Amino acid sequence: MLLLSPLLAAFAGAAAIVGLRLAVLPLLSPTRWYWRALLLGAAVVLSWRYVEWRFTETLAPLGWTADALFSWGFAMLEALTVLSSSIAFFILTRVKERTAEADRHIGWWSRGQPPLVDIFITTYNERLEVLERTIVGAKAVHFPRLRVFVLDDGRRDWLRQACEQHGVGYMVRSDNAHAKAGNINHALAERTRDADRPDFVAVLDTDFVPHVDFIDRALALFHDPSVGLVQTPQHFFNPDPIQHNLGISSAYPDEQRHFFDNVEPARDAWGIAICCGTSSMMRVQAVEQIGGLPTESVTEDFLLTLKLAGNGWRTVYLNEPLTEGLAPEGLREYIVQRGRWCLGLMQIVRDLYNPLGTHRLGLIHRLSVLDSFLYWISTFPFRIASLICPLLFWWGGVTIVNASLVDVIRYYVPYYLAMLVVLNWLSKGLFIPVLNDVAQLIAAGSVCRAAALGLLTKGPHRFSVTTKGGDRTRIVVQWSLMRPFLILLGLTVGGLAAPLNSDFIFNTSSTAGDGVAIVMFWTIYNILVLLVAIAVCIERPRYNRPQRQTPEPTTLMIGDEKHRGWLVNLGPEGARITGPVGLSPGTTGKLTIPEIGDIEAHILAHTRDGYRLKFAPTAEQRAQLIEKLHTARAVPGSDRADIVRMIRELARALTH
Questions:
Q1: What are phi and psi of 540, to 5 degrees?
Q2: Which helix (H) or strand (E) holds 549?
Q3: How far is Cα 553 from Cα 568, in angstroms, rounded to an integer?
Q4: Which of 132, 461, 489, 502 is most exposed, with the fewest beta carbons within 10 Å of its own?
Q5: Share of the chain above pLDDT 90, in %
Q6: How far is CA 441 from the centre of its chain?
């Protein structure tokens, strides 16, 4: 018992944090700045306490040895991630919600005519099924002086005809210079020469459908003449590749939820909310003053925010679900998107707004750029290094952390728990060990390459557009993405099971404190991360997308027979129903859908508890279906994590 007492005593800090989580945090409101500042500040103190311990007690003596190079290198990367999280935590100490402000200023122009508003739908190579949702949704927006334009950088005749059929404007240009930013600038130049030139322009990507109150709500914040841009959150009506391939979309929100639900409101409180492209609205006067959308970066949205700020215009954030879009469905598209975001930020830092450079940005906007820069250059390399360092120990005898188990529990565990507890208190449980690491690991290679490319080369840099839509009805194993994880898994398991020689463990443990126990735990954790990453690389089919759960009573008429049941899933192409029995695939009937009426439906197949149907709707009914599914004011998808359901779904995914 006496031998165990130092180990038990080391758990005191961790026990205090767990007790705080169970007994105190449920009583505190995350909207109160003082509780946020106190708890985030405590987490930062524990972080730097850990860093101080790492540099003073756990590293090899300086010298040209493998132990020194790798232990100091990894510790410096850790310190960089702590610096990044410290700045992020400082920003998170405040939060601003503008719903009440929007309520007060709806119709601020009431003594005169409403302003003229355009919706620009930007498109390059997307399919009609994707574009149609956005066009129908934009037409359904409630605002008296509104025009909708499709900006086609693909110059497609079939899209021109579709726009004519839907009664919306269609614009093309002679080239694709500067991609999306150039497309919008061309449309702005054309529209500002018209007699009905817009006062405000809302921008939607091809796959983002506005809700009916999008314009009213976003426009309300322009009551302040200093506001140049209003950003609203991006919500997704389909699961992203990580959610879908692991089967956890009902238990784990999309990977961007933390940014839009927590980071952007915090940035807004400091006056550094950023434009994210789609789902935003800009004051035409402000954009004209800065010479149009900037084209020097592939992330023109963030750069637009900085240029507006440098000219006295504010970007604000309205945290309401006013649009919903299509998340990247394929893993490659998901990775390409994040690589492009990183590349664009590196271009901004290298060529335009170095946080330490001479330009007109104020201190808080410089901190905003530094925060984003540190996130990209520390988080993703750290995730790769965390997989490699234990391998150096097992296969090369390199000591990365020379520490006792008692000290690891005393310094590392409180730091890790504090970060996890505080972030989950702020974010409705969005930070889940293993899953968050997998989300970073999947994109780590692409992000690291993009960071190096953006920082070390001047450009111009080519980038890929994120593809949406397409055939997703087959299982696809992304072998090229999976291969590095398989190799790392083999090396990790091999290192754990069969060291290079029988004396290796004993020789290492004598010079590395409790090195074996520490690296053993680290290795087992890495195995879990790699197993989940490998499972993510097996892309599951997506049938009948984008069907959504819509539990409503319905009736299926087959001839003169009335079959009552429940509408479970609904999409523009078909539905899934439960209740009726004894029906044969191939039969055609009429399905009654609330708010729409009777739609011709063909029974495709049996399901476990009902039937899958395929629709043959009229053009009007198809538009009504899209409006019903996507334009009502609602939050698509999940906005909080359910750890119990997640574990169950993860276990199922890993065993099938």
A1: -80, 155
A2: strand 548-558
A3: 9
A4: 502
A5: 72
A6: 14
Contacts of 289 (CB under 8 A, 6+ apart): 311, 313
DSSP 261: I
Q: What is the pLDDT of residue 468?
A: 58
pLDDT band of 501, cuts 50, 70, 90:
very low
How far is 248 from 653, CA to CA, in rounded Å?
9
> In sequence order, which residues have a C-beta less than 8 Å from that of residue 125 and are 6 or more positions away?
154, 465, 467
Report how far residue 293's alpha carbon sits from residue 304's, in angstroms, rounded to the nearest whole number: 6
SS3 589: strand
The DSSP code sequence of 167-209 is: T-EEE--S--TTHHHHHHHHHHHHHHTSTT--SEEEEEETTEE
**Contact by Cβ (8 Å): 181, 300:** yes
Cβ-proximal residues to 648 (8 Å cutoff; 6+ apart), any chain: none
pLDDT tops 90 at residue 436: yes
> What number of CA atoms fall less than 13 Å from residue 47's CA on the CB side?
22
**Omega within 30 of 0 (cis) for the link into 553:** no
- Structure-block tokens of residue 575: 């539905």
Instruction: Output the six-digit token pair for 248.
Output: 């956890």
Q: Cα-flanking dihedrals φ and ψ of residue 367, to 5°?
A: -65, -35
Per the CB < 8 A criterion, the answer to whether 398 and 499 are in contact is: no
**Sequence-distant (≥ 6) Cβ neighbours of residue 420 within 8 angstroms:** 431, 433
Is residue 369 helix, strand or coil?
A: helix
> Range with the lowest mean pLDDT among 117-126, 352-361, 413-422, 499-508?
499-508
> What pLDDT shows up at residue 91?
98
Q: How far apart are CA 312 and CA 226, in angstroms?
A: 7
Q: Determine the pLDDT at residue 512.
A: 46
β-pairing, 280-283 with 227-231? antiparallel
Task: Tell me the domains of the chain and their CATH numbers.
Answer: 5-93+373-539 (no CATH), 99-327 (3.90.550.10), 548-617 (2.40.10.220)
* Residue 205 and residue 186 in contact, taking contact as beta carbons nearer than 8 Å: no
Q: How many Cα atoms within 13 Å fall on the side-chain side of residue 302?
A: 26
Share of the chain above pLDDT 70, in %: 93
pLDDT tens string 264-313: 999 999 999 999 999 999 999 999 999 999 999 999 999 999 999 999 99
The two tokens of residue 512 are: 């590395």
What is the maximal distance between C-alpha atoms in the chain?
88
Residue 38: count of CB within 10 angstroms of its CB = 14
